[in-house]
Amino acid sequence: MHKLIEINAEEKWVSVQPGIVLDELNQLIYNSGLMFAPDPSTSNRSNVGGALGNNSCGAHSLVWGKTVDNVQDISGVLSNGDQIHFTNTSKSSLVEKTNKNTLESSIYKTLKKIPENYEKDILENFPDIQRRVSGYNLDELIHKSQVDFARFVIGSEGTLFSISEAKLKLVERPKHKALTLIFFKQLSEAMEATKVVLETMPSAIEVIDDMILNNARTNLQYSRLVNSFIDGNPKLC
Ligand SMILES: Cc1cc2nc3c(=O)[nH]c(=O)nc-3n(C[C@H](O)[C@H](O)[C@H](O)COP(=O)(O)OP(=O)(O)OC[C@H]3O[C@@H](n4cnc5c(N)ncnc54)[C@H](O)[C@@H]3O)c2cc1C
Description:
The chain is of the alpha+beta class. It contains nine helices and nine strands. The protein has helices at residues 22-28, 48-54, 61-64, 91-97, 103-125, 149-153, 187-198, 210-217, 220-229; strands at 4-8, 13-16, 34-35, 71-77, 83-86, 88-90, 146-148, 162-169, 171-172. It has a five-stranded antiparallel sheet. It is globular and about 70 Å long. The model has no long low-confidence stretch (mean pLDDT 93). Bound molecules: flavin-adenine dinucleotide. Flavin-adenine dinucleotide (FAD) is lined by residues 18, 40-42, 46-47, 49-51, 53-54, 56-58, 157-158, 162-163. Flavin-adenine dinucleotide binds at residues 18, 40-42, 46-47, 49-51, 53-54, 56-58, 157-158, 162-163.
């Protein structure tokens, strides 16, 4: 279950099985100039299924969003072995989906009732924050003429179905990269500066404190990098 099934570079999507490792996927599609954007720090070993299950983000979510923003369709298997396909669905197709005597149909019946019964609670209590990644995206069910069920289930941690295939959106790989280092004496100063730095529209911001630097120094690969741009042993207060 770790294969790349199909890539369409023109339409910028790729179909994959869930066991494919994120970095391996991006390596396989490298020549297309495209990439699957979510880049959690575990990307050299974590897989697409895990990113879909956790709604993983990564350092560059400022630009490309979370996994939920980078998925088109998801297929999988329900607890009784039936197959299910989650995608953008119109209200009329939703009515059709609820008309059968199957587990899939009963799931759609339940989902249809959620906005009817809980719209106010969802609108009032779902936090409007950039990195809300845990659990079902109930707000996707509210006020929509089309309901994107793929977006609804991302982050649901395998609690509804096992994903067997996903159609993922791809973005253009940046042609150039640049890194700016800003040194601070105190963590609070670094936090304050984030607001100003965000105005320059960076693709990522990371705080690197002495704990990270010291850990990096114990790793052969990273210690060379750390020693190439850090003098001495600075400590963030
Ligand atoms: C050290 C560390 C650093 C991290 N750094 C980041 C980070 O920088 N950014 C970030 O966003 N997140 C980060 N995370 C969390 C991140 O989301 C996960 O590390 C990673 O994306 C999960 O992938 P995995 O392959 O390990 O999945 P797993 O941990 O194996 O699975 C994650 C969830 O997905 C479900 N799942 C897996 N496969 C399927 C499937 N086929 N069908 C249905 N459900 C499935 C599992 O049941 C589980 O609930 C970090 C976690 C750790 C431990």
